[in-house]
Amino acid sequence: MQQQHHQIVKQTNGRRLYDITPDVTRWVALSGIGEGLLTLYIQHTSASILINENYDADVLVDMESFFARLVPDGDPLFIHTAEGVDDMPAHIRSALTQTSISIPVLDGKVALGTWQGVFLYEHRRMAHTRKVLLHLIGA
Amino acid sequence: MQQQHHQIVKQTNGRRLYDITPDVTRWVALSGIGEGLLTLYIQHTSASILINENYDADVLVDMESFFARLVPDGDPLFIHTAEGVDDMPAHIRSALTQTSISIPVLDGKVALGTWQGVFLYEHRRMAHTRKVLLHLIGA
Amino acid sequence: MQQQHHQIVKQTNGRRLYDITPDVTRWVALSGIGEGLLTLYIQHTSASILINENYDADVLVDMESFFARLVPDGDPLFIHTAEGVDDMPAHIRSALTQTSISIPVLDGKVALGTWQGVFLYEHRRMAHTRKVLLHLIGA
């Protein structure tokens, strides 16, 4: 049994879902681990990790439309507004989605389903540098 | 330290929560692992994993009533409609709940709380074959 | 490779977010494990685990304001009401947030981002005794 660590640094340029599947699967393929468990962890509270459909890009558009309506920017409900009208909504979107996800590794591959991709969900409007930690344990 | 993999295949017949606790706990009990970590991962983006109350079936009814109201089928907001009025809502329900959950194993048992059960949440109206991967590591 | 288990018992006194970061980081620091993976698991269906901003306490206030509006107590939609007007909302809040979270451990420290804290989110109005299990694997 062994473990490996990695970090994906992603430059975002606005509020949307970013497909990081290739970054994730490539690193696992090079790790030499055949069976194990991969964990992704995002070190932020205004961006998140999401497993989502990787086929029709309209799904990503609709996902964002839904969250924009559910957690509106500039909602007068919020008192934490010093960092911008989209900051508190970003924290709430983060709470409603995922900060960490663990995926089994089988036959040297991340065991994603046929239509699954791994996405970084940027919830802030401005560009940010986001860090996703990867931990892989197995043999 | 050792690890084991397993797959639960569940035939669903409509949108609701399916209790898979017995399938999960039975496999862990037979694994021979006394202490460790169990991870469940669902290979779909229109069904999810949820830890929920296992006692009063009304909780499952209310859970579904809430999600049906929060993410209405056929919402004109959505452009991804080719796969049916319940498809995009299913992806959003999946994003709002969980794709993976990890639970410690103690004394050879999945360390669920007294009122906790493990559920597969089918978000599509039609019948589907759903796959949940299980990864267990420990000693 | 080795693993360790721990339990945090938290006495809550009302519906809000409780910072358990010091309890978590102190235990990991004392574990002697330099690199690995920490998993937190809450044994309840009316309280949850959340990674959230640890700096401005207003974020915690706004988070609660949002969930109180999204999942209102005493909603006539619910039929599971025997345990109180805040019980079914608590189960839904639990489903919308997290029951388990896994965080890499690097250089003997939980690899939280600069502004991240680990919170127990009590969703019931009355005082409760809540149990969070910790599992740490690594070397």
From TrEMBL, chains A, B, C:
Belongs to the UPF0047 family. Transmembrane segments: none annotated. This is Secondary thiamine-phosphate synthase enzyme. InterPro entries: UPF0047_YjbQ-like, YjbQ-like_sf. It comes from the Bacteria. Coiled coil: none annotated. Pfam families: YjbQ. Signal peptide: none annotated.
